[in-house]
Amino acid sequence: MADLAGLSRVPVHWTPDHTGGVVKVLELDGIELALERRGPDDAPALLLIAGGGQSMDWWTPEFCDLLGAGELQVIRYDHRDTGQSSTSAPGQPDYTGDDLAADPLRVLDALGIEDAHLMGMSMGGGIAQSIAVRARERVRSLTLVETSPAGGDHGDLPPPSLAVAATWEEPEPEIDWADETAVIDYRVDVERPFAGSLGFDEARVRALATLEVRRSRNMASSMANHFIAEPGTSVDPAEIRVPTLVLHSADDPMFPLPHGEALARVIPGARLMRLGGVGHEIPPPAVWDVVVPELHSHLLRT
């Protein structure tokens, strides 16, 4: 893990946004990380860690406010190469998976937060596992969403669906990255194979993709660089010693349900909440009525 000493001394100035949060682009160690904080700034913190190629926009303000319930400060941020955070040239990431795993601690240190609840989706779940093993004193609890063990002895796990696997074999489309409409269409199409049996919510995904494209510095980098960066150091989730909730859908086409079951099995005391119909995604509004109470039970009692 990177040396993060002294980051808490970085001054942070916040700017209100139209959704009720406050935003900041944090400058430290030669990089910029954009983040937003919602809720009481003296409350326990919940840090949301998005998946590969995702900006913080996929953690919607509505979902963040439901999670915080007025009792938590909810922090979301843009990974490098997404949103308003630092970018590198497309196809040439200037960071590793270990750098991405250090960034959440950079954020917490800069805000003077000693420990936080971590919620990570997909790649973000791997980052959360890494922090819980390598900097466990910084973690109040874990919520692992549609993700897979970040190492350890978990046995054989099933591969992605044929539809998802096919996307890796198809030639990359030729995108005019200066054409906003074309880029939004492409961003929407990227999400289609990851839908579950609830179906693909075209209007919702298009709205989120439009927001992401319009506030991102370089979408070509966002769509490529996380997936070709040098992988981070693996960790054994069996070493996690914080309260852990695993949210996983029986319909996840990227990491089928046995991935979530393996996490719940190897992490001592972990609980598994099985979802139905959800794809490889942050829980959508259709399941908030069952997911949010479970998350409150987990977050507000630990």
What does this protein structure show overall?
- The structure is a single chain.
- With 302 residues, this protein is of the alpha/beta class.
- It is built from nine helices and nine strands.
- The protein has a nine-stranded mixed β-sheet with strand order 1-2-3-5-4-6-7-8-9, with helices on both faces.
- Mean pLDDT is 93; it is low at 1-14.
Short description:
This protein is of the alpha/beta class and 302 residues long. The chain has helices at 61-68, 97-110, 123-134, 162-169, 180-191, 202-215, 219-222, 257-266, 288-299; strands at 15-16, 22-28, 31-38, 45-49, 73-77, 116-121, 139-145, 244-249, 271-275.
SSE blueprint and pairings:
Layout: E1 15-16, E2 22-28, E3 31-38, E4 45-49, H1 61-68, E5 73-77, H2 97-110, E6 116-121, H3 123-134, E7 139-145, H4 162-169, H5 180-191, H6 202-215, H7 219-222, E8 244-249, H8 257-266, E9 271-275, H9 288-299
Parallel strand pairs: 4-5, 4-6, 6-7, 7-8, 8-9
Antiparallel strand pairs: 1-2, 2-3, 3-5
Helix pairs in contact: 1-9, 2-3, 5-6
